[in-house]
Amino acid sequence: MEARIHQFLLFLFICFWFSTAQNDDGTILRALKDSMDNTPPNWEDNPDPCSGWDGIRCRDSRVISITLASMGLTGTLSGDIGQLTELQILDLSYNQLTGSLTPRIGDLKKLTNLLLVDCDFTGPLPETLGNLENLVFMSLNLNRFSGSIPPSIGNISTLYWLDLADNQLTGSIPVSSGTTPGLDMLTNALHFHFGGNRISGAIPEQLFHSNMKLIHLLFENNQLTGTIPDTLGLVRTLEVVRLDRNALTGNVPSNINNLTGLFELFLSNNLLTGPVPDLTGLTSLNYLDLSNNTFDQSDVPSWFSTLQSLTTLNMNRTSLVGRLPRDLFRIPNLQNVDLSDNRLNGSLDLGSSQSNQLQQVNLQNNQIDVFQQSGQNSIVVILVGNPICMESGNTGAEFCSIPPNTDTPYSTQPNSCTPTSCRSGQISSPNCRCAYPYTGSLFFRAPSFSDLGNSAIYEALRSQLNDFYRSTQMPVDTVSLRDPSKTLDGYLRIIVQIFPFADNQRFNRTGLLDVGFSLSNQTFKPNNTFGTYFFQAANYDFTAGASGGNSSNTGVIIGSVVGGCVLVAILVLAGIYVLRKKDSAERTTHESSPFALWDENNGSGAVPQLKGTKAFSFEELSKYTNNFSEINNIGTGGYGMVYKGSLPNGQLVAIKRATRGSTQGGLEFKTEIELLSRVHHKNLVSLVGFCFDQGEQMLVYEFIVNGTVKDSLSGRSGFRLDWIRRLRIALGSAKGLQYLHDLADPPIIHRDVKTNNILLDERLVAKVADFGLSKSLGDANRTHVTTQVKGTMGYMDPEYYMTNQLTEKSDVYSFGVVLLELITARNPIEKGKYIVREVKEAMDRSKELYNLQDVLDPTIGLSTQLKGLERFVDIALRCVEETGDRRPTMSEVVKEIESIMEVAGLNPNAESASNSASYGYTNKGSEHPYTNDGLFAYSGDHFPAKLDPK
Fold it and tell me: Which entry of 184, 752, 933, 941 is annotated as an active-site residue?
């Protein structure tokens, strides 16, 4: 009876607290809701924003993500947003939000993604944007922002993606001075997108320097004046440069030839003078447009035929004189040549072995008097306005008229089925199923091709999109593309229709949010053929469950209940609930104390001491994994099965489920949840929760897509780890171990450091995982733990193996083996050979790269690029000394790797870039990351995609 009274009083307290207390972030979200219209219906029905509000993700009752792309929101963004101080992602793209961007946005110090694409914001950009010290993505394009670019943006050292294109920004490009910041300080940024504004003045020389990592520099269609600074040639990482449609003057700097990795160069429609630039060094160039400038009269450049990667050559109105060489038309991938309105003369001979991709040669308004026709007859040649077309007999020739556009517009065709007749608003998909697709336009800012009629190119893009949505398990059935065209800005526009699964016919809000976010956040990455893009969405008015009408604001009602009749009613109901529903009360007690049945005698130890980790019931995890279905099974290890799941807030998780009835791993289970609940570092795996219910032991981690370092070294992950990436992986994992040794209280020894237990998130940031064998020193003054030897052969410290004394230097030894594995891509023990002994026997410190060329992984890069490799080998071999007292500490290892990175010209404080930095990334899809016991790490549900460092 006494227990019932306690239960009754506890329940009354909970009821009273629930009726009077308001979650701070919940209150803020409700205030934000009041400033907007057309918010999701379940924002009305559910009093707790962290329990199912569409687009809201929380951690420990704090809002960390707001993703509301394409929700049809109207209204303004209230300054209350600044109070959500734990917010990491804010995506309000493709809505109709108006007004200015509140200066309170700068209070979101933990924000990593600020995505406000294609809204209708106006006014100046607040200077407080520079306070977003952790920001990685800033996409504010396709609005009506005015005023100048805030110099304070230069303070955001973490910024990778800066897109302010297609606004109404004015003023000059800000650079730093002794007292003010500027864009030249963004040394880790890979993307500068400023096209389609009204930015004026000269491009400052200070903007560019050799420490920058830019790959995309887009200032097209502005009002820039002055010369192109010589310092542009210092940024050797550049792949796309668009300075077209400005008023730039002077000569093109000669050191632009240093940009040997440049794919696209657009300098057209300026006032450039001097000689036609010599571009001999740009051997990777696909697309070149120098049209409509006032260069000095010049002979046809000899470097034309050296650009063997060209697909497009546009140099109309560039004062060219002379005869075109036949070698120009032998460039293997050449598609389009426009040299109209020049002074080209003599005979035109396309040769008999021209590119089989050549579509059109436009030479109108030149001085050509002979045309030797040979080779492919399908090539369109335009010679209108040349002497040859004034000769009798040629006036009616096909090449003496401007041909009509005969290209058949591309449209995705049905997949071997007959399109069905659909009701109004529905469209038949490529799989011949009626549905309401999510529609919009993809704009590619610098495609590498000009042949708009090549259907194979669009089929390849469609295949990439379909593969992407399948791999992410979004509710997408298929994708359709149609009507590719060029805009006035030279962008390639393609209309996209994304179809939901057939049994739904329409996207629900969760599915729509995921698809919208994948495009606003650049999570989908096309290959280099298409390059960088932006998406512009059409309204989607067909959301499943959208017609709910307005319901009462339950949260406001509950928040106002503080007494009177309502409180009395709650107390009465509470009494009835406790006294008559004993079983339910017991279940509630169990849920609030998930270790009530924890058995110390089953090998699991005493009740774990946890900090903020969520306890899930078996029923919850069963629901999140579709009853642990086979399709959700993503891996198998000695511990058991691993399943992919989706929480109600949309977060993807990986659930590690122990084999039913097995006592193996009981202690490891307890150790892992205890350790992971109290260690928090960007280079350590993050635990979401666990399940200890119905005889089950499950660990719930954030989901990862890029697998283990072992997978990457073996090639299973589908991307290449060059020297730079390996240095960053080494540093990240070293920092994770340093945290365990030096900053965890008490210190922690991992005990199983290996490449299978180092994971890579979407930005290839290394995270140390799998703490099942870890040991705590218990007392910060202790130097070792005497324990049974456990670990993985090949990585194990021989001193620990001989003495059973585990120390922090045991992790250092294992990490030294990891460092050697990073440069050799060999297993620690392979065909009876030990990697440590093999490196020591092969090395010769008197020779280049220590004479290790035969031992190094051939995919790591050229020897001239391996700056600092000798020092890297030195620190690795110091780590694998026979005795611990001769090994460095992890703190010393971190400092040495940072020093090596500085020697290699890298910023050791910069993270790996986002996946969208490299459009050449491919995921082979043949293996899933979770195929071993070294499990789980991920830095956000949809975080910037790669972001793949260059």
Answer: 752
